Fold this protein.
Amino acid sequence: MYAVPDQTGKLIVVTGANSGTGQEAARRLAGAGARVVLAVRTVAKGERAKAGILARQPGARLEVRRIDLADLASVQEFADGLIADGTPVDVLVNNAGVMAPPARMTTADGFELQFGSNFLGPFALTMRLLPLVLAAPAPRVVTMSSGVASYGRIRFDDLQSERRYRPNLAYAQSKLADLMMTLHLADLAVREGWNLLSAGAHPGFTRTNLQTAGASLGRDKPKRTPFNSFSPVPSQDVEQGAEPLLYAAADPGAVSGGYYRPGRWFGLVGPTATVRPPRRARDAATATRLWAEAEQLTGVAVPAGAARP
């Protein structure tokens, strides 16, 4: 198991920390000495996750705060709360997401659910928290992508899947967008001279409730998928699956613009490895256009005083 380096004195925000890779990352970051904000949509689930972590690590410093990434007003409220506290955020971990609901659903702001929750919400949160992040001595923004980003496409003519909704392709677009945001933020940090590390991760085929929960959205019962039925494809538990995210968030060897995933079985399982982001994620022109679209859709931009991307 990957040993997280000492994080004493750091404030780390982890979205989706009530279960899966988010909870595991929060547990191990807190175990390494960080003060961790469990940023969750349902406070009761966050409190249960906190209790579970404390049962294993009684000295963990944890706080539960509500955020719904599918609601830009909730994102603003969450960010405003941290800004009012005034404590620099050493690491922002954009982990939360939703996967492949069978029918097209929308966020509180009318965006297609996956594009809104997986990309626009984290984009708005990152921009709103950027002043606090940049106030930390060696800050990081880490965003969870997915192996499916390799076949994702940014469809500017139908970003919200209004003409045609295909669950897996909409998910792939949102995860490609996450990775493009990661790389674009890394480039922006270089241009602006910010001491900011922006890195991406993906968990391979990790057994969490993301696959089964996503499949049940909009249905009384989950549909049968390779994720909730027998599959010969190798998978791993959440302790291993969270490690690329932990490496990006805490390891001295992680670099800005880095992309980390499991190193075996074509990225499905295994110890963390460094990989080159897929070609589409490295398309600077598309990333710049996507960033501008995200600013327009969310109404949130790079903080005042920073040059435009």
